[in-house]
Each structure stands twice: as C-alpha cells, then as structure tokens.
Amino acid sequence: MWEYTDKVQEHFLNPRNVGEIEHPDGVGDVGSLACGDALKLTLKIADGRIADAKFKTFGCASA
Fold it and tell me: What does the pLDDT look like over 22-34, one tens digit per residue?
C-alpha cells in the first residue's frame, strides 16, 4: 500500500511544526483558498537565525 520510506510515512502520520506562531517576525502565504490549495508559513527570528517555524496547509492532499 505505502510506496514511501518509513521516514516519509512517519512525517505524514505525525506532522511536526504544524500551527501558527503568535506575533511572528515573518509570514509567507502561497496559493489561494479560492482555488482550494494554500500554505501559510510563520517564522520567529532570533540573532539573525530562524528560531521557530510553523506552517498550516489547506487543500486536498496537503491538509
């Protein structure tokens, strides 16, 4: 049934970093909810580096 590696299956079944950071330093949106597929990425930056990243996806396969 699965034709994916164990690691891909693990990430699919137990996604990490899902959600939205409160008061993010950076936000990226791509896609369109009107079309049915979209992704939102929020970042927290500390000392010039990404300290935290969270995402939300909307749509068929990605959600």
Answer: 999 999 999 987 7
Q: What is the pLDDT of residues 6-62, one digit of tens each?
A: 998 898 899 999 999 999 999 999 998 777 789 999 999 999 999 999 999 988 665
CA distance 23 to 27: 10
Closest by alpha carbon to 58, among 29, 17, 16? 29
Write the CA distances from 10 to 4, 23, 37, 55, integer angstroms.
10, 30, 23, 17
Nearest one of 26, 31, 21 to 61, comparing CA atoms: 31
CA 37 to chain centre: 13
Tell me the C-alpha distance between 20 and 59, whole Å. 17
- pTM (2 d.p.): 0.75
